[in-house]
Amino acid sequence: EDEQIVAEIMGRRFFPDLIAYKAWEGFHFAGHEIRITEATDCYGAVVWPSALVLCYFLETNSKQCNLVDKKVIEIGAGTGLVSIVASLLGAFVTATDLPELLGNLEHNVLQNTKQKCKHQPCVKELSWGIDLEKNFPRSSCHFDYIMAADVVYYHPFLDELLLTFDHLCKNDTVILWAMKFRLENENQFVDRFQTLFDLEMVSNFPSLNIALYKAMRKGRMKA
Predict the structure, then answer these.
(1) Fewest C-beta in 10 Å: which of 65, 147, 165, 201?
(2) Domain limits at 116?
């Protein structure tokens, strides 16, 4: 079953027939052909398989996870694929990442959502752990969903990432987080994450070494 679903997920990706002057990949999600411009010299400008897993979940669980008119923030949006799919499914999306990635992120989001979405998504800078209250004040920022794909890997900002999850998450916020396990750091982060949040594994794909989690604030997990 794992291999069958993984084949379906990876089958949503396609490549251009001809070599273009800009590197791009194509994807089929939410009834649309999505073209993503990439940059191979930067981790944040490449579509990783965890993003496909999360997009597939959003599309195939659109009744249980109805995004229409919901406020969604994606942290570490990278190329923007997850934000684009959430927007096409009716959410009001804020796609965030580091300042050096915003140009490509904004290009992809605009190219794939303009005049196609109920709510036009916005792109905003978010450096984990920095100026959180200034840029995303607790009193006025409320998100129904926080989405993240492959934000946990070998980097020195895991403390700041956990702080960002904590700042953005209200009692009724749902976190959807897809993660590829590579090193022991990932397991340690999951343990620390669970001190603040109730965590439920929604899907597991051993052949990709990727798990998809749903989380809410400790003690607030809904059925």
Answers:
(1) 201
(2) 1-217
